[in-house]
């Protein structure tokens, strides 16, 4: 049954067996949660029990034994890390991250304009875009050569996170390393150490050289303000007195940001473009709205967004049908009861955000792309209190990068649609588009979206 443990497989099983499904995998209890009501119980009513994270051998090793925020168990360390990240890294006041979004989107538009009239691989384009945004926000530079090396490290981490490791289920096999995974993990973490240690050393040197402090700070600078050789966590209110970060903490947090912020946003942009190419009526309506609100003489700017009502409805509909993280992975800290079922401590809990967004009792024509449903009063929103729509999760472990992610998503899609008219290549019809996805930590399109742009605006694009 292993190949059924995807968002689609579990949704099918839930139709047969209900919103709480228990599976045994070796010694492991696995529970799949697939309805809005059971999600509310897990993420709201009992969230103090359901807020730990499961981790396999690869995750534990590659996060320096959960020295980060995303894989830390719920508790004082996680709480202070989360406070630090929310206040220092993801805050709207960190203008530099928002600047990187704008600059990189501009760069992408110039690149597309240079390729007008030819096939553009939108999938590759937007994955490159979000990697550039996050790389720049984290490290402050956008050197292509260094970035290529870093991407190779990220790709190996991603493969190791998702690899089926028999030792996760039969622990005594770990020391034999029959699949060679332990050797790969050691090599991958050594490469990351080599890469980020140099960046950290550079930042420390730069800071010493300029005692007035750098004007433009990146995420490494923000984290270095908490740097110490000795880790420290206490519950003090003052952040600087309550937490000290080691190099390992800093490296692990940077990896959280890289993994949390690249594929999620890129897959949402690609799905948005694909759904709109498949629904020419909606595409026309969004582009008409852009013409009315922005006009054809300039590009979209931030203050325009609140007037781009239909564009925002389309993006919500995309996040409903294609939540970038389809299964939210949690673990129970102690025994719990959900809908009358007993769930033992240390169970792995998978909350199927994908199935919940398509729940037929919560959504009319649940499988259809119908953005206008979000124009109605009282329709669920994704802020976390409506459990039929949880693309960013809800409660304690919900996404801390939501604002930045939404900003990048809106900026990229609005620019792509306002600056260009898009045609499918080689006489392909909208209904020919293959809308399958592949399952991993995120669920991007199985086939990269390709389309042909032609300029739409009266102003120059580069
Ligand atoms: C469209 C964009 C995004 C979506 C849909 C999204 C979605 C999510 C979801 C569903 C979770 C897990 C919630 C849970 O386990 O209950 C999560 C966690 C997280 N996200 Fe995002 N995310 C997005 C963008 C970002 C960005 C841009 C960043 C960082 C720059 C980020 C960083 C994180 C981190 C660090 C966590 C772990 C939080 C924790 O465990 O306490 N995300 N995100």
Q: What's the quick description here?
A:
This protein has 462 residues and is of the alpha+beta class. Helices cover 47% and strands 10% of the residues. β7 and β8 (341-343) form a beta hairpin.
What is the CA-atom radius of gyration, in angstroms?
Answer: 23 Å
What does the overall shape look like? globular
| CATH domain class name | Mainly Alpha
Would you give the CATH topology? Cytochrome p450
Head-to-tail CA distance between termini = 52 Å
Kindly report the oligomeric state of this protein. single chain
Provide a count of the helices: 16
**Residue-averaged pLDDT, rounded?**
93
**Helical content (DSSP H or I, runs of 4+):** 40-55%
User: So, CATH architecture?
Assistant: Orthogonal Bundle
Taking the sheet with the most strands, its summary is: 4 strands, mixed
Strand content: 5-15%
Unreliable parts: none
What's the order of the H and E elements? HEEHHHHEHHHHEHEHHHHEEEEHHEE
Question: Which compounds are bound in this model?
Answer: protoporphyrin IX containing FE
Strand runs, count: 11
* Annotated CATH homologous superfamily: Cytochrome P450
SSE class: alpha+beta
The number of domains is 1
């Amino acid at each position: 049954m292993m190949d059924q443990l995807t968002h689609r497989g579990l949704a099918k099983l839930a139709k047969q067996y209900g919103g709480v499904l228990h599976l045994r995998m070796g010694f492991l209890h696995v529970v799949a949660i697939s309805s809005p009501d059971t999600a509310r119980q897990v993420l709201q009513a009992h969230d103090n029990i359901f807020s730990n994270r499961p981790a396999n051998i690869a995750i534990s090793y590659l996060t320096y034994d959960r020295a980060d925020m995303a894989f830390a168990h719920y508790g004082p360390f996680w709480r202070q890390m989360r406070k630090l990240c929310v206040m220092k890294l993801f805050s709207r006041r960190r203008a530099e991250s928002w600047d990187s979004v704008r600059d990189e989107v501009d760069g992408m538009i110039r690149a597309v304009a240079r390729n007008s009239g030819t096939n553009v691989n939108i999938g590759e384009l937007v994955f490159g875009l979000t990697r550039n945004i996050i790389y720049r926000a984290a490290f402050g530079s956008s050197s292509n050569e260094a970035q290529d090396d870093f991407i190779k490290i990220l790709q190996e981490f991603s493969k190791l996170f998702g690899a089926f490791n028999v030792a996760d289920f039969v622990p005594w096999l770990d020391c034999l390393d029959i699949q060679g995974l332990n050797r790969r993990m050691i090599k991958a973490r050594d490469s990351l150490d080599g890469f980020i240690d140099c960046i950290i050393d550079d930042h420390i040197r730069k800071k010493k050289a300029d005692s007035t402090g750098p004007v433009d700070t990146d995420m490494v600078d923000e984290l270095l303000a908490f740097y110490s050789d000795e880790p420290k966590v206490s519950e003090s209110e003052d952040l600087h007195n309550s937490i000290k970060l080691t190099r390992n903490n800093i490296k692990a947090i940077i990896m959280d940001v890289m993994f949390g912020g690249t594929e999620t946003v890129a897959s949402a942009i690609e799905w948005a473009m694909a759904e709109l190419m498949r629904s020419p009526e909606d595409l026309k309506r969004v582009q008409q709205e852009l013409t009315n609100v922005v006009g054809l003489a300039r590009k979209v700017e931030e203050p325009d967004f609140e007037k781009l009502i239909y564009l925002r409805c389309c993006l919500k509909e995309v996040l409903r049908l294609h939540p970038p993280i389809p299964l939210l992975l949690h673990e129970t800290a102690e025994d719990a009861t959900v809908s009358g079922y007993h769930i033992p401590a240390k169970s792995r809990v998978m909350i199927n955000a994908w199935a919940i967004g398509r729940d037929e009792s919560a959504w009319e024509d649940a499988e259809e792309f119908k953005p206008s449903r979000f124009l109605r009063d009282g329709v669920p929103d994704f802020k976390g209190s409506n459990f039929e729509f949880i693309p960013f999760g809800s409660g304690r472990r919900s996404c801390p990068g939501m604002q930045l992610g939404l900003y990048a998503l809106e900026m990229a899609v609005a620019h792509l649609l306002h600056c260009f008219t898009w045609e499918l290549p080689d006489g392909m019809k909208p209904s020919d588009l293959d809308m399958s996805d592949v399952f991993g930590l995120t669920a991007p399109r199985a086939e990269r979206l390709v389309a042909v742009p032609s300029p739409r605006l009266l102003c120059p694009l580069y």
